[in-house]
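tool=predict chain=A
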Amino acid sequence: MFVASQVNAAETIEVTIEGCSLDEPELARLVRLELGSVLESSEVGTPHVVTIQCEGNEAKVTLFDPVTKKAFERRVSAPKPGAEEAERLLALTVAQLYRGTRLGTETPVEDAPQTPKKAPDADSSAEAKPSAREKASAIAAPKPVEPPPEPRGSLGIVAGAHVRRIQSPIVMPSLEVMGTWSPFGSSLWLSLTGGAEYASVDRRSGIVDIAVGKALAGIGIEPVSDGTWSAFVDMALGVAVNHIRASEVASGYYAGETTGAAFEGSIGLGGALRVGPVRFELAFRGGAMLGGPVAQIADDDDVTLNGPWMGGDLRVRFLF
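tool=predict ok
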């Protein structure tokens, strides 16, 4: 705790400083200098008591006015140790508090502080730097509100249609569940997707049902972003399990089925719209399947999903 006072021909100003990690003698000197420069001439010889208490990131400045016999208080952000002209900024806050009492913009507190003990003061010969006055208002300014962190993960549903060539091009509806994680920011993400596709094909040998279950891992980047709108590119690679079964057969054929795994890969290009915690995406996709099972049918084309495909997806992702 530091206590200082100075008596001169014009004024008596008593300063108490508690818990501030600053140059306390310099702070006390500057408080007397700044406050003494704004005191009204009629208050010569009346003791003004200034108390500055620092706790954490807050400083409480209290001024006891001997004219009104009331105490006035202002709470401000405490300057960090080592900050440029930190002591002068607090001293200017005291002067501003005094001016506020004379303009009627300050409300007194109920209890006035006790008169502090006096102690020798530091040298007060240095002059104030004019640039500090421009910074004084920053002491009492409210702390900026930090924006919430960007979501890192998402969980969503993907509905689409993929055109694959079995005997002739056929549209296979697709439904997927997708999860993403962005370890390096929202412009790049990793994904895991699980889903299924189904189609029924009418051939001259009968009706063939085709079902696909797939699990894919991928990566996406967002090179263009403008507010809530953005464009993205992604790719995925994984395994698809194909099940091909004859549900109805023509005369002369018998029903059969086959199941096997295949490699599935794709690349997509699309646009996205973010509305609060929900992200809507529309993507055009192209890919290929390799190594899948082949169902051979006498006097008819083979049934397989191997080969290129293309389609589109609509995604709804919930961000967290």
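The first helix runs from residue 24 to 36. The chain has two domains: 2-138, 153-319.
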